[in-house]
Amino acid sequence: MTMLISRCELGAPAGLKVVIKDSIDIAGMPTRLGSRACDDARPAEQHAEVVEHLLAAGHRIVGKAVMHELAFGVTGINHHAGTPINARYPELIPGGSSSGSAAAVASGLADYALGTDTGGSVRVPAACCGVFGFKPTFGRVSRAGVWPGSSSLDCVGPFAADLATLQLAEQAIDPSFKPVTETALARFALVINTCAQPAVAAALNRYLESLALPHTRIELPLLDEAFAAGLAVINAETAQSGAELLASGKLGADVAARLSKAGETSAEEVRAAEQVRSAFSAEVDRLLESCEVLVMPALPNSPMALQDALAGQTDLQMTALARPFNLSGHPALVIPFEVDGRPVGIQLVGRKHADEVVFAAAQQLLRAADAARNNKDNN
């Protein structure tokens, strides 16, 4: 079990160390998507645009990361390329699909890592591994040189062990990102109608109360429908992108079965999902008129045991609170958070193209947490 499928040294020797998910092109290296079907892939002819950007920022690539095959899974299990160990919670799955990227950061192998997020594939492993992760506004960060070539959901996003490094990573891959100077406290709105387990929801509520951060409590009525619609869209789009690889007969049994089933998604299901996309996106936009960020758990429950996932179990409900915001396109940031010693993460969701505000709100939350901790220690 490993985090990297290959090592390399590319970029400024003193730059931040970066690991790249193996669905993102690096010139001179094959992009194998964690799949035996791509073992004979030819080296990429040019860098993905995000790779060009981070090298221009003076950062250093040290390797390509293992991933869930074809980025089509939530556990991070990969019997062909290897399953990364979750360094901070080794008995639990690393999460998928950007498993190696999250694990590399959690283990200290990289200062930051790039992954891709089509249905939670940055935020879910970030929560599982106890690190920070960010999905930008859809379309804000270039996907040129990233598999799949076409997607209405997928975003390139970074992982880091701390918020400051995460922001440096985001600035590197998004040259338009300009950190905002905080002039007022962000308004937080806790989403209370999630499918999170009662213990998880209660823990997050107590945490916010302990920070004395002013916040309101709101509902997202279409949250569950958006999750189901997001599944329909990703199934239809991935079935189309992966059809040739499926036909090769070389995919792992789990991904092959899921991809075959995904190919049965009807045009009517996709049309219905697009209607939900429009309605849910408008719903989120409306709620964000009265606050800067929505707050909710990143995972509805703690991750499953690694041994159960290796035995073939999976749990698509892991993405129930992440996937809806791929459908709507809103930026979302995950902060490490434990409940009873197990990781679930906190997710902050912001207005479209207000990615910088989401980072500022996260910084406010962390400062409030530090102040509460210091106050407790001094009493």
TrEMBL record:
One Pfam family it belongs to: Amidase
InterPro entries: Amidase, Amidase_CS, Amidase_dom, AS_sf
Residue ranges of every copy of the Amidase domain listed in the record: 14-358
GO molecular function, one term: catalytic activity
SUPFAM superfamilies: Amidase signature (AS) enzymes (SSF75304)
Family statement: Belongs to the amidase family.
PANTHER family named among the record's database cross-references: GLUTAMYL-TRNA(GLN) AMIDOTRANSFERASE SUBUNIT A, MITOCHONDRIAL (PTHR11895:SF7), TRANSAMIDASE (PTHR11895)
Protein name (database record): Amidase
Organism per entry: Pseudomonas linyingensis
Classification lineage: Bacteria, Pseudomonadati, Pseudomonadota, Gammaproteobacteria, Pseudomonadales
